[in-house]
Amino acid sequence: MAFVLAGGRGSRLHELTSSRVKPAVYFGGKSRIIDFALSNALNSGIRKIALATQYKAHSLIRHCQRGWNFFRAERNEFLDILPASQRYNEQTWYRGTVDAVAQNIDIIDSYDVDYIVILAGDHIYKMDYEVMIRQHVETGAEVTVGCLTVDRHEASAFGCMAVDEGDRITSFLEKPADPPGLPGDPDHTLVSMGIYVFSWKYLRERLLADIEDEGSSHDFGNDMIPDIVRTGHAQAHRFGDSCVRAPGAPAYWRDVGTVDAFWRANIDLTTFDPELDLWDTDWPIWTYSELTPPAKFIHDEKDRRGSAVSSMIAGGCIVSGTEIRESLLFTQCHTNSYSSLERVVALPRVYVSRHARLTDVVVNRGVHIPEGLVVGEDPEEDAKWFRVTPGGVTLITQDMLDRRAASL
């Protein structure tokens, strides 16, 4: 079975997670971040899935109920949603990633599974978990850890591991100042993806021990994995061995945990040959699809031409006399005449009034851009009203616009 951890707030996304948990944030024109972990599980042949939620989970739960309701219990398949429910006492929610699993031991017992895959629900990637599970069984490891290979100077932001020639993990360090290099490749480091495979019998014993450990922070990366490395057999699984991609394409994995990273990953999809292939019908990204009409482009006059170049426009959008370039519009967006959008990520149901000019912008769901608004040309002016990131991207929400309107 797959156990997906989807309770993290994602505070570095600022207002994008003010009303929704990070895994419920929109991505790619019609999906949510959570759809990637769930689709990977489904496409890998895993049809027993549990989803642990905590922070502002309504949007996530509603999405899963609408878009992931096709499992059939009579075929012994399901997606169970497990909100934090104070199962120990009235004060204790999920205290960490380990505790989120531990509080549901009785429920997992009822699933009658041999192996469990622990997944983070907030990353963008395509991976065949079956390859990793097979490696876990064949090596006889007590835990197998999904790993990325990154430049050593970038590894300090991750849980890092040293491995021997057979990829057995010899040490696990959480965000070290001096990350270890790889055997024969000192310029690169293996870092954890937050993906773990265990036999359920073994993990169950470790969870019960963690519950009684008052000194534990109840976290896989901080506590359980380093302890298994010291006392048992922990095996590294390299993402490149199970990444789903076109022949010759690079292994694609993104943590869209900042506004800059979120904007960049979405804008990258509009390029000629994006590294993330959303058009692959052999490994589809399943999601909830609204019933919408096709996108429509109207008007063909000078300075009033409905057009989109190097862009992705979702269903239900109306591009009315607007020039759009290198942008991604989610469902039901409506733009009006004499406006222009360049490198814009507009979440669902954004309305852009006439004569607006937006450049390098993320627009939150349901925002009404007023007539004549110009954003992305004067960073100092933008910062008075909106959130301008270190990378020069401007995040616009309706509350920001309302405060601006009240001040003018």
UniProtKB/TrEMBL annotation:
<feature type="site" description="Could play a key role in the communication between the regulatory and the substrate sites">
    <location>
        <position position="54"/>
    </location>
</feature>
<keyword id="KW-0808">Transferase</keyword>
<comment type="similarity">
    <text>Belongs to the bacterial/plant glucose-1-phosphate adenylyltransferase family.</text>
</comment>
<keyword id="KW-0067">ATP-binding</keyword>
<dbReference type="Pfam" id="PF24894">
    <property type="entry name" value="Hexapep_GlmU"/>
</dbReference>
<protein>
    <recommendedName>
        <fullName>Glucose-1-phosphate adenylyltransferase</fullName>
        <ecNumber>2.7.7.27</ecNumber>
    </recommendedName>
</protein>
<keyword id="KW-0321">Glycogen metabolism</keyword>
<dbReference type="InterPro" id="IPR011831">
    <property type="entry name" value="ADP-Glc_PPase"/>
</dbReference>
<feature type="domain" description="Nucleotidyl transferase">
    <location>
        <begin position="2"/>
        <end position="270"/>
    </location>
</feature>
<dbReference type="GO" id="GO:0008878">
    <property type="term" value="F:glucose-1-phosphate adenylyltransferase activity"/>
</dbReference>
<dbReference type="InterPro" id="IPR011004">
    <property type="entry name" value="Trimer_LpxA-like_sf"/>
</dbReference>
<comment type="function">
    <text>Involved in the biosynthesis of ADP-glucose, a building block required for the elongation reactions to produce glycogen. Catalyzes the reaction between ATP and alpha-D-glucose 1-phosphate (G1P) to produce pyrophosphate and ADP-Glc.</text>
</comment>
<dbReference type="InterPro" id="IPR056818">
    <property type="entry name" value="GlmU/GlgC-like_hexapep"/>
</dbReference>
<keyword id="KW-0548">Nucleotidyltransferase</keyword>
<dbReference type="GO" id="GO:0005524">
    <property type="term" value="F:ATP binding"/>
</dbReference>
<feature type="binding site">
    <location>
        <position position="192"/>
    </location>
    <ligand>
        <name>alpha-D-glucose 1-phosphate</name>
    </ligand>
</feature>
<feature type="binding site">
    <location>
        <begin position="174"/>
        <end position="175"/>
    </location>
    <ligand>
        <name>alpha-D-glucose 1-phosphate</name>
    </ligand>
</feature>
<comment type="subunit">
    <text>Homotetramer.</text>
</comment>
<feature type="site" description="Could play a key role in the communication between the regulatory and the substrate sites">
    <location>
        <position position="93"/>
    </location>
</feature>
<dbReference type="InterPro" id="IPR005835">
    <property type="entry name" value="NTP_transferase_dom"/>
</dbReference>
<feature type="binding site">
    <location>
        <position position="94"/>
    </location>
    <ligand>
        <name>alpha-D-glucose 1-phosphate</name>
    </ligand>
</feature>
<keyword id="KW-0547">Nucleotide-binding</keyword>
<dbReference type="InterPro" id="IPR005836">
    <property type="entry name" value="ADP_Glu_pyroP_CS"/>
</dbReference>
<dbReference type="GO" id="GO:0005978">
    <property type="term" value="P:glycogen biosynthetic process"/>
</dbReference>
<comment type="pathway">
    <text>Glycan biosynthesis; glycogen biosynthesis.</text>
</comment>
<feature type="binding site">
    <location>
        <position position="159"/>
    </location>
    <ligand>
        <name>alpha-D-glucose 1-phosphate</name>
    </ligand>
</feature>
<keyword id="KW-0320">Glycogen biosynthesis</keyword>
<dbReference type="InterPro" id="IPR029044">
    <property type="entry name" value="Nucleotide-diphossugar_trans"/>
</dbReference>
<keyword id="KW-0119">Carbohydrate metabolism</keyword>
<dbReference type="InterPro" id="IPR023049">
    <property type="entry name" value="GlgC_bac"/>
</dbReference>
<feature type="domain" description="Glucose-1-phosphate adenylyltransferase/Bifunctional protein GlmU-like C-terminal hexapeptide">
    <location>
        <begin position="293"/>
        <end position="396"/>
    </location>
</feature>
<dbReference type="Pfam" id="PF00483">
    <property type="entry name" value="NTP_transferase"/>
</dbReference>
